[in-house]
Write a structure and sequence with these properties.
Rossmann fold; alpha/beta; 12 helices; 12 strands; disordered N terminus; 434 Repressor (Amino-terminal Domain); 6-stranded parallel β-sheet
Length: 338
């Protein structure tokens, strides 16, 4: 459908209809100078009648307040990323900000610098970085000093405020649960991390070490369920594997499919626990036990930290919430306990 050629109403049109000057309309919109109630009512009535929408860029020039928040992320479609972005956008919109998303293609320095340069080529008020992985961590280090910046991630550090999810405690809870069912140890299928210290791997290893049991080698799957599927087929041939914790729910689903096609039952032969609380997990067969995390809340808390920086120049260093273990059908005692 062709767009209408009708000219959008301007601030001049509002002034003419209201019978006031253009500066008066501007003062009503920005609140920079008091305007009489009678004139304010006339201006607002004209705005409603014309359907006038103030230009954000022009308003920023008048008020000195930028209205755009930049978000840097390596992905926008995976569950945790997409839901965190949703939380940021909802909170920013309620506060009168527009969110602009820039994707960091890889952690290669040129790609990271290009993404940062693109985001900062716009007049942004501040930046939220999704520091879920190496590209996010690299982007955080490329941002200039003096720019309001907040990181959303599973870990702390880097000298900027962080909104975090306590991955370490969540992984410990999941591992303790599986050990409590009678499993001799728990294997771990890992997602990529944003640094040397991965919260989920740390919690898994800490729980095993505390229990005095074997710590198996980490099985790296990247982000792709297809890789977890292949790992599942490989683990199916091992008698020593009875419990697996996966770095996210997508990997858990891929792993379970691989186990199924190789003739192993979940949880009859091998228990599987995921991470994140993907909505599809409860519809999987068997329904997936998972460590549930509130990513939308993570996004809202990230913006709240940034809002503090924008409002007063000060904010909390960390905003953290705990994960919740949700027990479903994919986990149970090992075969030897039945």
């Amino acid at each position: 459908m062709a767009r209408s050629s009708t000219r959008a109403p301007s601030i001049t049109d509002v002034a003419r209809l209201a019978g006031v000057s253009v500066p008066t309309v501007s003062r009503v919109l920005t609140g920079s100078v008091p305007v009489s109630p009678e004139r304010t009512d006339r201006v607002m009535a004209a705005i409603r009648e014309l359907g006038y929408r103030p230009n954000g860029a022009a308003r920023a020039l008048v008020t000195g307040r930028q209205s755009v928040i930049a978000v840097l992320a390596s992905n926008t479609t995976r569950y945790g990323y997409a839901t965190t972005l949703q939380g940021i956008e909802e909170a920013a919109r309620l506060a009168g900000f527009i969110v602009m998303i820039t994707v960091i293609e890889t952690e290669e320095p040129r790609a990271v610098q290009a993404a940062v340069d693109l985001a900062l080529s716009h007049p942004v008020a501040g930046v939220v970085v999704l520091k879920f992985d190496p590209p996010g961590a690299a982007a955080l280090h490329q941002l200039p000093d003096g720019l309001p910046v907040v990181a959303a991630s599973g870990g702390r550090g880097d000298g900027v405020p962080h909104a975090v999810l306590d991955d370490t405690a969540g992984a410990m809870a999941a591992t303790d649960y599986l050990l409590g069912l009678g499993h001799r140890t728990v294997h771990y299928v890992a997602v990529p991390t944003s640094g040397r210290r991965a919260g989920r791997a740390t919690g898994w290893k800490r729980a095993l070490t505390r229990a005095g049991v074997e710590v198996p080698p980490v099985l790296d799957a990247g982000w792709e369920p297809e890789r977890a599927y292949e790992i599942g087929r490989g683990l199916a041939g091992r008698d020593d594997v009875t419990a697996v914790l996966c770095g996210n729910d997508e990997l858990a689903m891929g792993l379970m499919r691989g186990l199924h096609e190789a003739g192993r039952a979940v949880p009859g032969d091998i228990s599987v626990v995921g991470f994140d609380g993907h909505p599809m997990g409860r519809f999987w067969t068997p329904a997936l036990t998972t460590v549930e995390q509130d990513f939308a809340d993570l996004g809202r808390r990230s913006f709240a930290l940034l809002g503090g920086l924008l409002g007063t120049g000060q904010t909390a260093k960390t905003s953290s919430t705990a994960a919740r273990l949700v027990i479903r059908e994919s986990s149970g005692p090992p075969p030897s306990a039945r």
